[in-house]
């Protein structure tokens, strides 16, 4: 009975706070509409200037191959390397391609020709991927160049030399056949939406009552601590499930992304994860004296959790000691669940390690939320 009255109070209080209602409706839509288009690991629109010292048909074809790749924007030809490098130093362009004199002859008679590439690597990711893209374009151009002319590297006729085709690699992209980064990113965005709403809002709840003085009215009631904490959690539990459902519908309508696995598996893990996140928010609220403290502490932990969750960078590429720390990050396990169910069609049995980890977090954080609440009679 007491739980019912407290829940009614929480829902009324939630509805009377316009900013909370607005966040619940607008935040998921904004995240799903904007973030998948701006957060991506593939780099495009790398600006390039070319120093063409050969001015041959082959060099012209090579420049065309780079420009038509979709990754590079040709900023034009410059007469010499010094002028091109100056444009890089002034951030007017990202890379310089220098085609040497005798480029075409080298391809026809020497088995190949060198091409010099200078890339602005201030942004290490942009520089590394840009160089990788250019390497792939060069390899494809060489193969096409020789195939069209029926010659092998070194100038021999393919048939006269008795050559056989080289080893061909057939690549099959499993789980993400279109190599669309949005497919990889969107299941992780569900985590951001849940954490921001079901973590931040509970963190502001109890501390808000402390500031208003209404917490004293609760303290003099015979309501037990577990019932009080549960009454604070359940509204955000319901809100989190609803927001997740809306986000999944938006992902399907806008991007055509639907889970390959069971919706029941997603629901089961989501309920546990939302409980854990809400409990952590209440723990922070219990220890905070004002709203500013709660917001700062939550922002710090959520930022660290997101960066160490594998959302943006693979955990395997992190230093060993950081990889060890990620095992106490509940976001890591939930992201693995969402990507596994969405992209691989993972079953509940496939995700048993993640289930037990999230259950442990739910029990630990839920207990901590109850113990840390200081009810004074």
From TrEMBL:
Q: What Pfam families does the record point to?
A: ABC2_membrane_3
Q: How does it sit in the membrane?
A: Multi-pass membrane protein
**Domain of life, source organism:** Bacteria
Citing just one GO molecular function, the answer is:
ABC-type transporter activity
Keywords for this protein: Cell membrane, Membrane, Transmembrane, Transmembrane helix, Transport
Provide the protein's localization. Answer: Cell membrane
Transmembrane domains' residue ranges: 20-39, 183-207, 234-255, 261-284, 296-315, 355-373
Keyword S-adenosyl-L-methionine attributed: no
| Primary localization class, coarse | membrane
Recorded GO cellular component terms are:
plasma membrane
Which InterPro entries does this entry report, sorted A to Z?
A: ABC-2_transporter_component, ABC2_TM, ABC2_TM_bact-type
Q: What PROSITE patterns does its record include?
A: ABC_TM2
Q: Which residues form the ABC transmembrane type-2 domain?
A: 151-376
Family to which the UniProt record says this protein belongs: Belongs to the ABC-2 integral membrane protein family.
Instruction: Please give the PANTHER family that the UniProt record associates with this protein.
Output: MEMBRANE COMPONENT OF ABC TRANSPORTER YHHJ-RELATED, MULTIDRUG ABC TRANSPORTER PERMEASE YBHS-RELATED
The protein in question is named ABC transporter permease
> What organism is this sequence from?
Candidatus Merdivivens pullicola
